[in-house]
Design brief:
This protein is mostly helical. It has one domain. 82% of the residues lie in helices and 0% in strands. It has 6 helices and no strands. Helix 3 packs antiparallel against helix 4 and helix 3 runs parallel beside helix 6. The radius of gyration is 17 Å and the shape is flat. The N and C termini lie far apart (45 Å).
């Protein structure tokens, strides 16, 4: 239904629909994680940002259609989360599942900052 609306409505309404979809995904993820399992996650936003960044790159540089962006971006975020999740049980400290995503978030933030700085230097040259 969202794809059908996207084809009919203009770019501003597409942005609004995407904004609502981001909040729905975040709330659904936090409901499952906190509400049903009772765990906390310090890096929940990092995995959501991976999917958002993948969406932005695929849309901007490769001009992917909207119907292809959502599943591929979700898959990229899921693979990233699974990679961190595989490493989590190997930690022998208390609460490994809640503290493992924190370094992933910091690494992601550092990589994004370096990519933005490199892009800015390329534009100045």
């Amino acid at each position: 239904m969202i794809w059908a609306l996207s084809a009919v409505l203009g770019p501003f309404r597409d942005y609004q629909i995407a904004d609502i979809a981001v909040y729905v995904v975040a709330i659904a993820g936090l409901t499952v994680l906190i509400g049903l399992s009772g765990q906390i996650s310090l890096g929940h936003g990092a995995f959501m940002a991976v999917g958002a960044y993948a969406t932005a790159l695929l849309q901007t540089h490769l001009n992917w259609p909207l119907w292809a962006l959502f599943p591929v971006s979700a898959l990229i975020a899921a693979v990233t989360g699974a990679a961190v999740g595989v490493a989590a049980p190997r930690l022998h400290r208390p609460y490994p599942f809640s503290y493992t995503p924190l370094p992933a978030h910091q690494t992601q933030r550092t990589l994004v900052c370096r990519l933005l700085l490199a892009k800015k230097k390329d534009q100045q040259a």
